[in-house]
Amino acid sequence: MRKISPDQLPINADGSVFHLHLRPEQLADKVVMMGDPERVGTVAAYFDSIEFDRQSREFRTITGSYKGKRITALSHGIGCDNLDIVMNELDALVNIDLQAREVKPDFHPLTLVRIGTSGGLQPFAPIGSYVASEISMGMDGLLYFYEGGDALSNADLTETFVNHTNWNVFLATPYFVHSDKELLTRIGFDMIKGITISASGFYGPQGRHVRLGLESPEQNELLESFEYQGLKICNYEMESAALAGLAHLMGHQAMTACLIIAGRYSGQMNTDYKALFEDLITAVLDRI
């Protein structure tokens, strides 16, 4: 049996995983994820009871009960690189014997639903609408660091996208990953479905021109016009591809649902979205 050394999986003195500072008994099987630590408190305000609350860096975790379901609300911070930390440590909590430093003989699956805000790229996904990511595209190349990551990505979709957008050869090859089909149907049955772009940054990688010029000023127009087997690119965010990809490789259920707060198509932005986001929270809590 392979022993996982401390440099491969750091564990704190209290038996918690290194970044999240969680111990196995503090994690529920159903996890609602979001970028902003403050939103964890917003989600937990709907819980009937709270058993655990901890924050480490940008990672805040509250575990409690909602209508008889044990649920963990967890913030993952911004970007696919943060999801690499979060997903590996969540998986370790349920599938690694942290004392023996060995993989457990019986696999333990998690249900992971990310809720977030995003920018809409289509007129049919206006500000105020909800998008469930049927497929997510990662700009970051993260999945290719893992065995099986290249086979998981939809190769035909990748080739079609690269050709359509004249993808810069100096950028990482994009990867496309499907959300869990059962979870997508259960959580997002009444939401807009399509392709979500997980950008590797907020400004230039999402086609925002502030002071620095863009290498591809036409990027958003090319994304808006792209279509694959009836699916169009609906929105930008920064984490769904890493979540979907790593969950598939690890064997967990995962999907992302986002509220559109920026109209990249219209050039508009809504910063007063609290009520709409709370409606998304309650829908996910009821359906997870």
Report on the architecture of this protein.
The chain has eight helices and 14 strands. The protein is an alpha/beta fold and 288 residues long. It has a single domain (24-287), classed as Rossmann fold (3-Layer(aba) Sandwich). A five-stranded mixed barrel has the order 7-12-10-8-13, surrounded by four helices. 42% of the residues are buried.
Question: What value does the Rg take, in angstroms?
Answer: 19 Å
Global mean pLDDT: 95
Largest sheet: 5 strands, mixed, barrel
> How many helices?
8
- The residue fraction in helices comes out at 25-40%
Q: Beta-sheet strand percentage?
A: 25-35%
Distance, first to last CA: 35 Å
Q: Uncertain regions: pLDDT < 50 for 5+ in a row?
A: none
- The structural domain count equals 1
Reported CATH architecture: 3-Layer(aba) Sandwich
User: How are the strands of the largest sheet arranged?
Assistant: 7-12-10-8-13
SS-derived structural category: alpha/beta
From the structure above, extract its key features.
288 residues; alpha/beta; Rossmann fold; five-stranded mixed barrel; 29% strand
Q: Which secondary structure elements does this structure contain, and how are they paired or packed?
A:
Blueprint: E1 30-34, H1 37-44, E2 49-56, E3 59-66, E4 69-75, H2 80-95, E5 96-97, E6 102-103, E7 111-120, E8 130-138, H3 149-152, H4 155-165, E9 175-178, H5 181-188, E10 192-198, H6 219-225, E11 227-228, E12 231-237, H7 240-250, E13 253-263, E14 268-269, H8 274-287
Parallel strand pairs: 1-4, 1-7, 7-13, 8-10, 10-12
Antiparallel strand pairs: 2-3, 3-4, 5-6, 7-12, 8-9, 8-13, 11-12, 13-14
